[in-house]
């Protein structure tokens, strides 16, 4: 290594990645603070205004959808998951008016002038139409060189496993996922957009994301999930904890056992949440569940309840209790929410509140660190050998 490299990089190794910013970075003059601070404050205010406007518009439209759904006829089994359509062969106007308009617009503009986000909405392969799913199911390749991306959400994994979104789960744009979730699960357009909006940091700059991005623990994925292990649990499979890609068969058998023959109701989902949160908090010394994560967590239970329903023979394969260990739709599956304009945000919020209130407040002891022996016996102590008891 030359002497020059050592001097300019400020590190003995000369590795540019090892540059010490405290020594090498340009010194900022304090006179710049009012200018840069003022600019940052203005830009933050702009973002806040945009967010408030976005929420207002989305929720006003959604309230309209909620009210219209009360009188509009439900979707027929035929129309629930639409058949194949494209600009040349648009869906019936009466069933999907917005898609029909966009199909006509694309036909008029032609391929070159149509923005890509429109083409995501105007093309649909018809997978799942009339409850036909299984022919399209493929499991992600495993082992060395396996590069498919999967995430903690059974709904998104199932869509990737069936090829409704790209099977490798990579370079997904928010509109693409919103359009897919709208058609696959009969969610309203407003709800499909809202579910994606919460994840904007993942795609804001690039315009796309890999679905595994959703698995960053502590962001949206959280401790006390009922289908995924906490990352420091001894049952967390070491290759999966980074992305939370695979369901935990241990948790599935605990909360959705094969032996159960009764259909699940919202009370069952509340009971699962209450038990899982308390159990996780009691064993995990670093247990965190912030208020937003409470809402995500009961929102997921509300989605299962309203979209997948309580029948074990559909629910279990959907969460990954099958010979493959991956989320799938069985033949005959259809979303249980059949509203003419799809399930609205308001409807989901009502069910989220019911299930959250049913779960009650988190009670029971937090994992106690009284001494080294306690710490040794806790899940944290198992980090080094995480995955010893594999999924
Ligand atoms: C585009 C829409 C969606 C996005 C971006 C999304 C995202 C996520 C994320 C990040 C998680 C992990 C965090 C957590 O456990 O709270 C998750 C979990 C989950 N999602 Fe989704 N989701 C979407 C749609 C759906 C739909 C339509 C359903 C139901 C039909 C659903 C059901 C669930 C369930 C059951 C879990 C697991 C909860 C747990 O293990 O505790 N999601 N989702």
TrEMBL record:
User: Which residue stretches belong to region Disordered?
Assistant: 1-21
Keyword Cytoplasm: yes or no?
A: no
Q: Which UniProt keywords apply?
A: Heme, Iron, Membrane, Metal-binding, Oxidoreductase, Peroxidase, Transmembrane, Transmembrane helix
Q: Which GO terms describe its molecular function?
A: metal ion binding; peroxidase activity
Residue stretches making up the Heme haloperoxidase family profile domain: 129-350
Pfam families found in the cross-reference section: Peroxidase_2
Which protein is depicted? Heme haloperoxidase family profile domain-containing protein
Name the source organism. Leucosporidium creatinivorum
């Amino acid at each position: 290594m030359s002497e020059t490299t050592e001097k300019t990089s400020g590190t003995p190794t000369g590795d540019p990645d090892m540059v010490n910013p405290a020594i090498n970075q340009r010194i900022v003059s304090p006179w710049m603070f009012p200018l840069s601070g003022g600019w940052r404050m203005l830009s933050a205010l702009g973002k806040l205004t945009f967010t408030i406007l976005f929420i207002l518009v989305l929720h006003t439209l959604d309230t309209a959808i909620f009210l219209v759904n009360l009188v509009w006829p439900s979707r027929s089994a035929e129309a629930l998951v639409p058949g194949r359509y494209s600009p040349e062969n648009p869906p019936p106007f009466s069933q999907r008016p917005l898609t029909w308009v966009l199909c006509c617009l694309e036909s008029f503009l032609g391929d070159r002038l149509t923005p890509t986000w429109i083409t995501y909405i105007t093309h649909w392969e018809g997978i799942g139409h009339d409850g036909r799913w299984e022919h399209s199911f493929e499991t992600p390749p495993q082992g060395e060189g396996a590069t498919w991306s999967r995430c903690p959400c059974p709904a998104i994994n199932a869509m990737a496993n069936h090829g409704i979104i790209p099977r490798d789960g990579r370079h997904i744009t928010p509109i693409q996922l919103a359009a897919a979730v709208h058609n696959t699960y009969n969610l309203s357009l407003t709800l499909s957009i809202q579910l994606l909006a919460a994840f904007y940091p993942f795609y804001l700059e690039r315009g796309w994301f890999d679905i595994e991005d959703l698995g960053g623990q502590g962001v949206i994925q959280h401790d006390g999930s009922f289908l995924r292990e906490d990352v420091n649990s001894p049952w967390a499979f070491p290759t999966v904890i980074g992305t939370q890609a695979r369901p935990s068969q241990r948790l599935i058998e605990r909360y959705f056992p094969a032996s159960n023959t009764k259909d699940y109701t919202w009370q069952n989902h509340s009971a699962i949440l209450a038990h899982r949160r308390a159990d996780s908090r009691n064993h995990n010394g670093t247990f965190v569940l912030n208020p937003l994560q409470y809402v995500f967590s009961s929102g997921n239970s509300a989605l299962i309840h309203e979209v997948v329903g309580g029948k074990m023979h559909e629910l279990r394969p959907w969460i990954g209790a099958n010979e493959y260990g991956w989320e799938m739709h069985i033949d005959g599956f259809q979303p249980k929410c059949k509203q003419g304009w799809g399930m609205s945000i308001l409807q989901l919020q009502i069910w989220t509140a019911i299930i959250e209130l049913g779960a009650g407040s988190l009670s029971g002891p937090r994992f106690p660190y009284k001494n080294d022996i306690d710490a040794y016996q806790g899940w944290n102590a198992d980090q080094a050998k995480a995955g010893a008891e594999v999924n």
